[in-house]
Amino acid sequence: MTTAFRRPSDRRVSPIFLGIAAVMAVSGWAVWTDFAEQTGFAVFLFVTAAWIVSLCLHEYAHARTALHSGDISIEAKGYLTLNPLKYTHALLSIVLPVLFVIMGGIGLPGGAVYIERGRIRGRWKHSLISAAGPLTNVLFAVVCTAPFWLGALDGVPISFRLALAFLALLQVTAAILNFLPVPGLDGYGVIEPWLSYRIRRQVEPFAPFGLLAVFGLLWIPEVNGVFFDAVDALLRGLGVSEVETYCGLDTYRFWQEWFGDQDPGCALIR
């Protein structure tokens, strides 16, 4: 087994991540204070930047848990810097999830840190590594919905409230999709260590197509309805109404205003 050499830069937070976090902070401030002339554009920047931050932290959680479980190669790969460009598939982990948010308003699970599983001993450790990422989305959802379930919405501007509601929707959908026990997703990674070697070998060829299969199923209206009913039920339990998430998405898509496609009902709320 080779030794991974550690450099000071292997754990230093990436300027790229700090830049994204700065965009999130500034645009969030602009939404909160109504400073931006185009509130919809500020909401777009805030939610998109916050979503990318959550994707980076999702992958960081996988990497950090793997490091403490025995994979010391994690540091040399740059995964602890929170730099999205260090992931093995930046397209799958960052670009596609952002595009899915823009087009469909759904949290696409990313997932592209290469973990040397052979360095890790113990089935519980393998399961925890897989669970760490979507648990980060769960934590994000709890934080985003905290003002709602704590009844602390007094003084929160409506545009910021709608942005939080939509961001919570993204985190909940990402957590649910990631926890599905489908090959290629984190949910399967949680149960895989407990399956027999024969079953794992039989399932392995299907892993690259698991995510595509899930989204293919979501195109079926009946499946899509059941999925979003479950999402809405969870969000209602956290104090977020379907109207708030819908109008949050409507506000996020600021460009619809140019074509007169924004919902007039949401315009009245805002």
Query: Ranges with pLDDT <50 over ≥5 residues?
Result: none
Q: Tell me the Rg in angstroms.
A: 19 Å
Number of E-type strands: 0
**Given the structure, what is the number of helices?**
11
Q: What form results from the Cα inertia axes?
A: globular
Major pleated sheet: none
Task: Report on this structure.
- This protein is mainly alpha-helical and 270 residues long.
- Helix content is 63%, strand content 0%.
- It contains eleven helices and no strands.
- Helix 4 runs antiparallel to helix 5 (158-178) and helix 5 (158-178) crosses helix 9 (221-237).
- The chain is globular.
- The mean pLDDT is 88.
- The chain crosses the membrane at residues 12-32, 39-61, 90-115, 127-150, 162-182, 203-220.
- Keywords: Cell membrane, Hydrolase, Membrane, Metal-binding, Metalloprotease, Protease, Transmembrane, Transmembrane helix, Zinc.
- Its cofactor is Zn(2+).
- It is found in: Cell membrane.
